[in-house]
Amino acid sequence: xxxLNRILPWDGWGGRIMATxxxxxxxxxxxxxxxxxxxxxxxNVAMIGCGPGVGVVAGARRAPNGIxxxxxxxxxxxxxxxxxxxxxxxxxxxxxxxxxxESLPLPDRSQDAVVSVNNIQLWSDRSIGLDECxxxxxxxxxxxxxxHTWAMPDDVxxxxxxxxxxxxxxxxxVQVEPPQTQRFRSGPAMVLIGRSAR
Length: 198
Known about the structure:
This protein is α/β, with parallel strands linked by helices. It has one domain: Vaccinia Virus protein VP39 (Rossmann fold, 3-Layer(aba) Sandwich). Helix content is 39%, strand content 27%. Strands 1, 2, 3, 4, 5, 6, 7 and 8 form an eight-stranded mixed sheet that branches.
């Protein structure tokens, strides 16, 4: 995945193109993730790898008394998300920062939900990223991970990769529902939902 991170243009003109592609290609998955979280009006939700901010805006509309935090390592994606939030008039319900999954700028147990759509395979260290997700989840908080099946690592079979992810989360006191495969406009994706038991 380190190679993929080096190849894909996350910043500069390439990042702007990727943001446009992602805003369209991932939109239905981002909206589905927010529905799966089913935030209360006062929920705090962290969107890891928020891309151009489609999910951040959708989450903010569902949690008008909470805060939705968009986090992305790409400066272009952070700016696109901020612009989208301003345009959609939800900037007062959001916070957008440049950050990676492995170092979330959030207090312990501060988030009712953590969401990752099409980016867990890009994390430089999945183990540290999962530690961070669990650290910031409030007791009973929900973790939602969606990932295109075609975006999974080539060197590990799908079933094995998903089983390993479930095992990793269970070891961190996250109760994981059986993963589902759901079809989206851009192709089939794994849908995994876990709840913090801490």
